[in-house]
Amino acid sequence: xxxxxxxxxxxxxVAINCxxxxxxxxxxxxxxCLRIGKKLKPLPPAWAKAGYKKKEKCDVCGxxxxxxxxxxxxxxxxxxxNTNWINLKTVCANCQIELVAKVSWKPAVIVPDF
Length: 114
Prior knowledge:
Elements: E1 16-20, E2 23-26, H1 31-36, H2 46-49, E3 71-75, E4 88-92, H3 93-102
């Protein structure tokens, strides 16, 4: 497997973290970016990658927010990987709390980040 390119600088390969059981684990950045402390840009959520945009008002109660930060994208089936637009709703904070109480959530599987 080839070493991936550093997402911060886009020029050098990422640093090797360790070798365990004949498997190589890589860091998230190259040595130079790690030394100078370059921050990684956060990845957009899956719903944004799918092309869904938040609406200007809540789909449940009709609250019209002054800022998009007051609205959240709610996954109807509780599966964050399901980005069908039928499954996505724009809701305000109050409606989100009520909806989360109604949905039966499954605990997420914890995967180690090497």
